[in-house]
Design brief:
- Keywords: DNA damage, DNA recombination, DNA repair.
- Belongs to the RecO family.
- This protein is an alpha+beta fold.
- The protein is built from seven helices and eight strands; from the N terminus they run βββββαααββαβααα.
- A hairpin with an 8-residue loop joins β4 and β5.
- It is globular, with a radius of gyration of 20 Å.
- The chain starts with a strand and ends with a helix.
- The model has no long low-confidence stretch (mean pLDDT 93).
Length: 254
Amino acid sequence: MEWTDEGVVLGVRRLGETSVIVELMTRDHGRHAGVVRGGRSARLQPVLQPGNSVAVVWRARMEEHLGVYAVEAREMRAARYMGSAMALNVLGAALALARLLPERDPHRNVHDALALLAGQACHEPADADLAPGPGLLALFELSLLAELGFGLDLQRCVATGVTENLAYVSPKSGRAVSAAAGAPWKERLLPLPAFLRAPTGRPPHVAEALQALRLTGFFLQRHVYGPRGLPAPGARERVIGLLQRMAAGAAAPR
């Protein structure tokens, strides 16, 4: 058996003295592990860092075997994250979530969203009130929910059918609610940041990113973490904590 693919490194664990088992989110073969011989060498260790993209050839005698990877670097991103706690935790939260996907179950959209996040979340915003990394994390979580069959309908009001002025999401149905229809029950609804409906390329503000992560976190807990008896990743909680401190600093008198 042999195939060629590309993937984002999710994690690495030791195997013997010189080899490692590397877990990838591949584009066409899903979350897939394999042995990299010599993976602890000075040449390969920098390549096999979480968040990097690699090109791989996987070989095994039979499809169900662990198999062996031959690996080449495609995009080395790990070093860009070293100076930013926010970027490191955004990346860590996304990688931890991807590792919950069924093994060897193809999810091309998840791979593409993860590669986009890994490539862009390390960029520091010019405006301290913006939160591009957490915004990308919320969009990634939204795409993963959709891939797992728990997608949110954010394009039309569940009560009236209108497509404009959508301001909330029903926690029961996961569908959008307009500002007018939701006004009497707004305390029971989840705020809907506009960038989740129609990404414009503009990074969200800190408050928008917090709302977005609370929204996706609610449905991740219901459909992903809760059924597995797992807490949300620590990295995700740290992202929210950092955002809350940023929001408090922005609100403080100057």
